[in-house]
Write a structure and sequence with these properties.
The protein is an alpha/beta fold and 287 residues long. It has 10 helices and 11 strands. It has a single domain, classed as Alpha-Beta Barrel (TIM Barrel), CATH 3.20.20.100.
Length: 287
């Protein structure tokens, strides 16, 4: 593995004019148990992955209270507390987990307040760098949900506000209440339904975090349904997963991929993609 392996090779982004981060982050969903439920089978291994990510220059880590639930945030604190000043942790609230494989929406103001305060305790932080509404709740006016995050920000519990799983129209409604520094929607080579949201984010210099950046692992395996991915990977002498991450980085300057893994080997492969530069021919082939 290249001794100079570093997430900084992807370039940098600034969140909210005051948080500089490297443009390849880490998604901390997969460090939990099977089905994103409970503790991982090897807690020490999960801790080592998180610590290795930071040593590789990853200084933006995305998590949520629903991962585990609570387990991902607990592990982050176990692995990285006390945090170095450059580490930016983003977490989310608004989804609840009554049981394995169940993801229900709850963006009531009272729930979001309790969720945020519980995340602060688990992460052992006085303020959350970026707190994201995990998803709009059709039973709750979006303005009520965001309004509660604005109040928490005013109380010093949140530094910046982000949103997830939103349309452009919903994003504009949020922006009427507060600056939005990040949007996290599903986006990858096969799923580009959020292209309009991505263009809006690029115009407004809002970071775009693509969840499922590798199609839930399909791209890393070089799925045959992805025309050109294997050819591009072979030309550069890299894996299909690395080519998919490089494509995301080349897609937009506001793109902030957050591939997650429970394996140090896969982590290092993902970070190596930060230094890959696809050519215009490559990008056209993957269009």
């Amino acid at each position: 593995m290249n001794a100079n392996l570093n997430a900084a090779a992807a370039g940098q982004l600034v969140l909210g004019a005051d948080l500089g981060i490297n443009r390849l982050g880490f998604g901390a969903m997969r460090i939990t148990g099977r089905g994103v439920w409970g503790e991982p089978p090897d807690i020490a291994a999960a801790v080592r992955v998180l610590q290795r990510a930071v040593r590789l220059g990853v200084n933006f880590i995305d998590t949520a209270d629903s991962y585990g639930p609570g387990v991902s945030e607990d592990l982050l604190a176990r692995a990285l507390h006390p945090y170095t000043p450059d580490i930016v942790i983003a977490t989310k609230g608004g989804l609840v987990r009554p049981g394995p494989e169940i993801w229900d929406r709850d963006a009531r103001p009272e729930h979001l307040r309790k969720a945020c305060e519980s995340s602060l305790q688990r992460l052992r932080r006085d303020r959350i760098d970026v707190y994201q509404l995990h998803a709009p709740d059709p039973r709750v006016p979006l303005e009520d949900s965001i309004g509660e995050l604005v109040r928490l920000k005013g109380e010093g519990k949140i530094r910046h506000i982000g949103v997830s799983n939103v349309s452009v129209a919903e994003l504009r409604r949020c922006e009427r209440l507060t600056p939005i520094v990040s949007v996290q929607n599903r986006y990858n080579l096969e799923d580009r339904q959020s292209d309009e949201v991505l263009r809006y984010c690029a115009d407004k210099a809002i970071a775009f975090l693509p969840w499922a950046p590798l199609g839930s692992g399909r791209h890393a395996r070089g799925s045959g349904a992805l025309r050109g991915l294997e050819r591009v990977a072979q030309r550069h002498g890299i894996t299909a997963g690395q080519a998919a991450i490089a494509w995301l980085l080349g897609r937009s300057t506001v793109m902030l991929p957050i591939p997650g893994t429970a394996s140090i080997e896969h982590l290092e492969q993902n970070v190596a993609a930060a230094s890959v530069r696809l050519t215009p021919q490559d990008m056209q082939e993957l269009q």
